[in-house]
Write a structure and sequence with these properties.
The chain is mostly helical. It folds into 2 domains: about 325 residues, no CATH class; about 30 residues. The protein contains 16 helices and 2 strands. α2 runs antiparallel to α3, α3 packs across α4 and α6 crosses α7. It is globular, with a radius of gyration of 22 Å.
Length: about 350
């Protein structure tokens, strides 16, 4: 069951080609995982409701929900912090911390340490069941290069305009693109900095991306047995339900972050800043900022925005621990410019309201 998470295994289709019955049957594995996640939520809800009369059911429901949320958000951090900001955009680098240099003295030892750290980060990133980091990064870099054009993998704006349907645009950008065979393979030409590492290619060519989610699922099952909650209950409530959340929180950025909110910068595409998405995505809601400068480790620019970029706060902690080096931080001039654009936008909105009020009076 765990061998069927995200991605196609057949030949590629053209962009926008309809998914026929054969494709749906083939890709039913993706829907099965989502269905198992929904069953997990029903299981949690049932336990919580039954807990009104039964204490053990209440404790089981709370435990399953807690494990679900923990598994969701630690995996989301590896989506946002490592799949996205490290492997896709290289916005920070691993480094040998000063407090370890007594043991790591030669260039060879330093290289081994950095490659081992990167391998562990890639391994933990695959626990979200979204295939290997090279597959993920190659498609994400393609998205940035062709954002909201005919060549974009998951453009809401393009598909919406082409089909005249809001819902087709949403479905394509949120889920359908994952099911298209066109996106089965990574484009290795877009990730020369990653494909040179055999240990990262292991996750692409040997189905190594299945190991971490399988171990996590088994771990949840054993946890359920060990705590007396039940192995199947914890597998569904703690693993599959959290996988469902991790999938769709990730997909929210592909779809909703190009649909809802406001654009601070004119980036030539339809990315938006949508503050409430940060609750689910650990800071990825500042999506227009990100498309404006994707090398920045922080997707927030203003100090009051940074508080909601939880991923960046964790990266700052890792930097303080001397484990990483952030490549680019916004300058005072860039922060001032962002604030100026915000003030200008506010003035335009106020002016428009006054015009509408005057028109109503007339």
């Amino acid at each position: 069951m765990l061998s069927v998470m995200i991605g196609s295994e057949e030949d590629e289709l053209a962009v926008g080609e309809k998914i026929n019955i054969k494709d749906i049957l083939y890709e039913s594995r993706f829907f099965i995982v989502n269905l198992l996640g929904i069953i997990g939520f029903v299981w949690i809800l049932h336990a919580l409701i039954a807990g009104i009369w039964n204490r053990h059911s209440l404790i089981s429901g709370i435990a399953m929900l807690a494990v679900c949320l923990v598994n969701c958000y630690w995996r989301m951090f590896f989506v946002t912090g490592f799949r996205h900001r490290y492997f896709s955009h290289r916005s920070f680098k691993n480094k040998v911390p000063g407090w370890l240099k007594w043991a790591i003295r030669t260039p060879r030892q330093e290289e081994m340490y950095l490659r081992t750290a990167q391998f562990i980060e890639a391994f933990l990133s695959t626990a979200d069941a979204q295939k290997g980091v090279i597959w993920w990064a190659s498609h994400h870099r393609h998205h940035h290069k062709f954002s909201d054009t005919a060549d974009d993998l998951h453009s809401f704006d393009y598909v919406c305009k082409e089909t005249g349907s809001f819902w087709k645009g949403f479905y394509h950008s949120h889920v359908k693109w994952v099911l298209l065979k066109k996106y089965k393979k990574a484009d290795y030409d877009k990730v020369p900095d990653l494909k040179k590492f055999p240990e990262l290619m292991f996750f692409e060519r040997a189905r190594g991306y299945l190991i971490a989610p399988t171990l996590l699922g088994v771990g949840c099952f054993l946890l359920g047995i060990g705590t007396g909650i039940g192995g199947w209950a914890m597998l569904f409530g703690g693993f599959f339900a959290s996988t469902f959340l991790t999938y769709h929180f990730t997909f929210f950025i592909n779809s909703l972050a190009h649909m809802m909110g406001a654009a601070r910068f004119d980036t030539g595409e339809e990315s938006k800043n949508c503050g409430w998405l940060n609750w689910f995505t650990m800071g990825e809601g500042w999506h227009n900022n990100h498309h404006h400068k994707d090398i920045a480790a922080s997707q927030a620019i203003l100090p009051e925005e940074e508080r909601s970029d939880v991923t960046y706060q964790i990266l700052l902690l890792l930097e303080k621990l001397d484990l990483i080096k952030i490549v680019y931080k916004y300058t005072d001039a860039e922060i001032a410019e962002a604030r100026r654009l915000d003030n200008l936008a506010k003035e335009k909105r106020k002016s428009k309201k006054r015009e509408l009020a005057t028109a109503d009076v007339s």
